[in-house]
Design brief:
It is built from 11 helices and 12 strands. The chain has 292 residues and is of the alpha+beta class. Strands 1-2-3-4-5-12-6-11-10-9-8-7 form a 12-stranded mixed β-sheet, with helices on both faces.
């Protein structure tokens, strides 16, 4: 039986949390920090905690992010993975129109079980480039008839519309349908960027055709979003929008040393990032089920 657990019940599955962390981290202090972080996230309701029980004996646990759709951790005691997966996923499918599983903390031999039960696998990558290397690419200018403006809340609906058109049919929209598969989702995505994100909009003859969102984080700039309406692909506009947005976001700061982003390897933007010199830092697997 799968059920929701509260913060006061974490001690019941503590032995599994310890075993889970020891599978991925050798450093004892790191494990202790992550264990505290997990407890705090459950306590603050950033994560929901699900536990699997046979009678009163726990055999697995999973953590679900605040969206309620992403399984961020999944663990089972040896020999119980199949029961864990089927019961956990069945529990979520009864409540959700889609389920997304982060594959980073799931054993490779369980991946096949997930795929064979209606989930599609997607690969995303974290990419980065040194800011000095990126700054050397700044020999770009906007073509005649194009301009860049900064975000105005009155343009939010138009930005959501162009994002929806930009992501239609892409792997990113399939991995994150809650953010990129509807106008409501795109609107939620824009709101999720928060007040510190800098948003730059590409305009062609008074029409909004592209958007780039940059999130400053210490010495890093993170590209939260790069969207361009498909009719404007193949003209170098995505490259120009990205470079000019990052250069603008870095103005007035001498601390920026790294630019990073996440990309789906099946999307066109992935090739753009590689051509610009971004290198892959790590791969991230996602498994997605969507109700037909």
């Amino acid at each position: 039986m799968i059920r929701m657990m509260n913060y006061d019940e974490i001690h019941i599955i503590e032995f599994m949390i310890d075993d889970f962390l020891s599978c991925y981290y050798d450093d004892k202090n790191k494990r202790s920090q992550l264990k505290d972080s997990l407890s705090n996230n459950v306590k603050s309701q950033k994560f929901s905690l699900l536990g699997g029980f046979n009678d009163d004996t726990p055999f697995c646990f999973g953590t679900i992010d605040s969206s309620g759709a992403t399984v961020t951790m999944l663990y089972s005691i040896e020999g119980m993975w199949e029961q864990c997966f089927f019961e956990m996923v069945d529990y979520l499918k009864k409540q959700k129109t889609f389920v997304r599983i982060l594959g980073s903390f799931i054993p490779e031999d369980v991946h096949e079980l997930i795929i064979n039960n209606g989930f599609r696998r997607f690969e995303r990558v974290r990419m980065e480039i040194s800011y000095d290397s990126f700054r050397s690419l700044n020999q770009v200018v906007l073509p005649d008839g194009y301009s860049m403006i900064t975000y105005d809340p009155h343009t939010k609906e138009k930005i959501a519309s162009l994002m929806l058109e930009s992501y239609k049919g892409t792997s990113t929209s399939m991995i994150f349908p809650d953010y990129y598969d509807s106008l409501e989702g795109c609107d939620k995505c824009i709101l999720s960027w928060g007040p510190t994100v800098r948003i730059y909009i590409l305009v062609a003859d008074k029409t909004l055709v592209g958007v780039c969102a940059i999130s400053p984080n210490g010495n890093k700039l993170y590209v939260s979003n790069l969207s361009l309406i498909p009719a404007y692909h193949g003209k170098g506009l995505g490259k120009t929008l990205l470079i000019l947005s990052l250069l603008e976001a870095a103005k007035g700061s001498d601390q920026v040393s790294i630019v990073n982003l996440d990309a789906s390897i099946d999307d066109k933007a992935f090739n753009l990032y590689k051509k610009l010199g971004f290198i892959t830092d790590r791969y991230i697997s996602y498994f997605v089920w969507k109700k037909e």
